[in-house]
Every structure is written in C-alpha cells, then in structure tokens.
From TrEMBL:
Protein name per UniProt: alpha-L-fucosidase
Keywords: Glycosidase, Hydrolase, Signal
A GO biological process held by the record: fucose metabolic process
Domain F5/8 type C positions: 355-497
Entry's family note: Belongs to the glycosyl hydrolase 29 family.
Listed GO MF terms: alpha-L-fucosidase activity
SMART domains: Alpha_L_fucos (SM00812)
Residues of the signal peptide: 1-17
InterPro entries assigned to the protein according to its UniProt record, in alphabetical order: FA58C, Galactose-bd-like_sf, GH, Glyco_hydro_29, Glyco_hydro_29_N
Amino acid sequence: MLRLINAVAWIAIIVTAQSTPQPYLRTPSSRQLAWHQLEYYAFVHFGPNTFTNEEWGRSQSTPDVFNPTALDTDQWAKSFADAGMAGMILTAKHHDGMALWDTNTTTYKIGDGKWAKDRIAAGLSADVVRMAAASALKYDINFGIYLSPWDIHRDPAMPKPNLTGTLYDEPQIFGDNTTGDYNDLYARQLTELVTLQYDNGSRISLFELWLDGASGSDTVQTFDWAKFRDIIRENQPGAVMWGHQGVDARWVGNEDGYTVPTNWHTISRTQDQTHYEGDKLQTGVRDGLYWTPAESDARIRDGWFWHANEKPKSVNALMQMYMECVGRSVNLLLDVPPDTTGQIPEEDLETLLQFREQRDAFLKRPLLTPDLDVSASSVREGDSKQYGPANVLDGRTETYWAMNDNETTGVLEIRLDGTYSIDAVIMQEQIALGQRVGGYLIDAGVDGAYRTIVNGTSLGYKRIWILNSSVEANSLRLQILQSNATPLISSVQALGVKQ
Ligand code: FUL
C-alpha cells in the first residue's frame, strides 16, 4: 500500500515537473520584469546648465546660477502622466557636480544659492529632488534618479578658475591617482539619494538609478560598480540600476531613439568589462550571460538641457522613435527638459499630448478578441486550458501558448470573424521564463490562402510590426521557425479596420 502511495506521489511530481516549462537560461529578476512593463517614461535634465545655456557645464558657476522663476514640479509630473509616460528620471547631479538635493557631501549644491535660501526663508522646500519625487507620487508616476559618476567639480583635469578660493573650491579627488577616494564620495551621495524621504517620513521609492557612463576628460577613475549596486539593492530593492552594461539595464548604443530589429535582452559583459561597440549594445547577445535589457535614452529637442533656440521634434518623429524602441522590446526614456521658469514648456507639452493621441489612436484598434477561433499545431501535454493557443488572445501576459519541451517550431492560426484590413501586428513572448524565439513569420490569410507579412528574428518582451501597406485578411497565422527552447507566446494582436 505504501509503495502504491509512493508511486502515485512520484507520478504526481513528474506530471507537475513536466507541465510547467522550466526557465530557459537567463530570466529577468522581478524588478526587471516590472521595469519592462513601464515601456516609456521621461528624462528630466535640469540644473545649472539650464541657466547657462550649456550641455556640459564646466562647474564654473556658483549655486546662485540656479534660479528658476516659477518652479513647479507638479507641472512636470502632471504633464508626464497626461502624456501617458510611466515615470520620470531627474538629474540629481549632472557632470558639473552641482547637487539638486540637500546633501551633506558637498558645498556645491543649489541649497547654497540665493533661490534656495529665499525659499527656505519663506518656509518653502528647496530640495528639488524631494519635490519632484513628491509630485511623481501625487500624479501616480514612477520616480528615478540620475547621478553622474563623472564629476567635473572634483576632476583635477578640469580647471575651475571661477571657483578658486571660494567656498566651492573643493578637494580634487576624482581619479585613481588623486589622494582622495571619489568612490566613497559617490557612494555617500548615492546612499543619501536612495534613503531620501517624503515629508511624511516614509522612504521615497525609486524605480531606476541612472549611472551615466559618459566622461569628457582624460582622468581615469575606476568606479566601484559592485559597491554602488549593493547600496541600491539594500535600500531600493525594487529599483533597476542602469549602466552602460548593466547591472540591470543597458544602454542601447545610441542617443537617437532607435534600435535595430533584432534585439536580445541578454549580454555577456558587465560594467567592469570592456565596453561593447554601439552595434552590439543594440542587438545584445543571444543566450548571453546576463539579463541586461536595453533602454533607449532620447531627446524631445536637440539638447538634453533646455535651450531657447531649440524646438521640440515633430509628433511623427516621436511616433517613429516609439515604434523603433518600445516596438522593438526596448524601453524609451524620452528627455523633456524644463526651461528657466522651472516648467516644461507649453510647446513640448503640446507635442507630448498630440503624440499620445496619435499613439493611442493607432494602438487602440485591436482586431483580435478572446472569443475568436484559434488553433495550434500542438499544445503542451494536450492541456489546452492551461497552455492552449487561446491564451494569446486573453489580454493577460501571465498566460501563454506552449508546446511540449521537445518542440521548438510550431504554427498558431487565428480565424477572424470577418474580413479586415490589417496594418500592424503586436506580439509578446513570455520573458519571465527567458528569451527563446529566434525566427518567425506572420502570414495573412484570405479564405485559407496565406501570404507572409512579417519575417522576424528575436521576439522578447514586445514587438510592434507596422506593415508597409495594409493587407486584407480573414485569418492570421504565426509560424515559429526557430527557437532555442520550446517557444512561449503570451500575446498576439492585430491592428486595423473592418472592411
Ligand atoms: C550622456 C551625458 O553626457 C549627457 O549630457 C546626458 O546626460 C545623457 C543622458 O547621457 O552620457
């Protein structure tokens, strides 16, 4: 009897073990999985450069230079929320080294300037980082922080005659050959930022820390990325650390809001290793050693900081950026800089809102509904309730169509409830269990006669395929031609209009 019970228990274990697909190689952490879903959010470059009309200020101005005439961080957060952006990342310290928060690590902070002193005297806050975080919370968007590792203010190779002999003439500790420890200063700044509090005393929650890889001087500074990561992990376990090559998210290799169609979420190098060329950062490395998905930092204007002579890009240019980033599984971090008033200019906001309208009008035309007839060449263990092809239409990313482990190619067919004119297809792979698919076709059918409309390689978190011209179809077919493990497809959608 005991034997029989054991046997039954074993069968149960084997069946369970087979039924759930095992993770394939690298998979996203929970913080990365949540981050993928944010897709599109704002970058806010604001600081002394806004007032000196520079991009890379030389740390030559005193904090008095920071003088917004009508700062309104609520206006930033509301603008971004209205524009359908999932969050904002603020430059707490850009390369010039001036801190926008009330730090104990340097005298070179806006808090030492006239604007801040006047506000404090009037009983108002002058900590722009905390103000922006509170506004993000108020308008229910995520908040993140940029903290420049390169610090001109501390870099001996960057002369600062205007600050010589002033309160802001601080030790030149940036670089491996200086007597001070810049990593320690940076770690202290990071620690302050990841432990900031809202007015009610609770910790400000961060979704991303942006540790820029740029440097414009010959000074060699070896950064202690592992230490920075640990500080972030300990204090903000839900936050993604962005760096040139990780640890949690990578640069896409350009600053133009663009990436190539093939995109892998993994790479095989860390921040401490030789940097990949831009091309490699775009594609990533298939089956790479680390889950380090790409983020594309791009600009609504030409500069990162606001300049009076620049204009926002067109709505069409932003649409293209979106489709070539978010539509290729890469998050889009779009810089929208406040002007010298301390607000997002009206014309930029107008552009963002029109862009949202155009985007929504395009994306909100789904043709595939859960009730459609859908079939597949194979279903994992015949369990069509759990792994059936209907899962790609149910609007939930947790469910997916799966085949047996030994099957890496297969076909899924969806019969529409009429004839439609289709101009785009959107697909998602179940990345929680790894990135697997390496080749697929999407075919449009009219009464069973198919023609290929998409020929894709990588799939990943989300692909939006816009067709060159719309096609007529009363059925759609997805052919998985290549996958390094059995493919797991969580969503298929087609956009268009009824004929
Ligand atoms: C670059 C910086 O040098 C730019 O000024 C800007 O902050 C951009 C987002 O990253 O590396």
